[in-house]
Amino acid sequence: MLNKSHIFGVLAAVIAIAPGTAFAGQVQNNQQNINQSGAAVGSGNTVVNQANQQAVQNALKIKKGHRYGSGGYQGQRSGQNIGQSGAAVGEGNTVVNTATQRAVQNATQLNRGR
């Protein structure tokens, strides 16, 4: 039989292994926003706006008991927005806007039968 210290040890190990995991009955929300602007006045100036966003969400659902047992619901929501603007007044000025976005959502279901 497991005592309380063993149970807490197992729980701590699960949290350490999967800190970004949602378990049954939970919803994960992620919202990332970047707004960049730049201005160059004169000649030979360069404005560079570079934005990178990455969101990774993992969900774990463990079904117990019968084959058709319930394991609860899960939800994952992710939103990413990038706004960039640049202005160059004069001669020989350059404005460069670059952006990358990546969103990964994983869901895993484990069935534990009798």
TrEMBL record:
<feature type="signal peptide">
    <location>
        <begin position="1"/>
        <end position="24"/>
    </location>
</feature>
<feature type="region of interest" description="Disordered">
    <location>
        <begin position="67"/>
        <end position="88"/>
    </location>
</feature>
<keyword id="KW-0732">Signal</keyword>
<protein>
    <submittedName>
        <fullName>Filamentous hemagglutinin</fullName>
    </submittedName>
</protein>
